[in-house]
Amino acid sequence: MADSEQVLSVLRKVLHPEIKLSLMDLGMVKDVGVQGDELTVTLALPFKEIPIRDELIGSVRQELQKAYPGQEIEVKLVEMSQQERAAFMAASEGGPKPAQSTNRIDRVIAVLSGKGGVGKSSVAALLVVAKAAHMARQMKAPILGLIENMSSLHCPRCSERIEVFGPSQAIKAALKMGVPLLGELPLDPELARQCDSGQIEAYAAESFQRIADAVEKGVPATKTKPIL
Question: What is the CATH architecture of 122-218?
Answer without folding.
Answer: 3-Layer(aba) Sandwich (3.40)
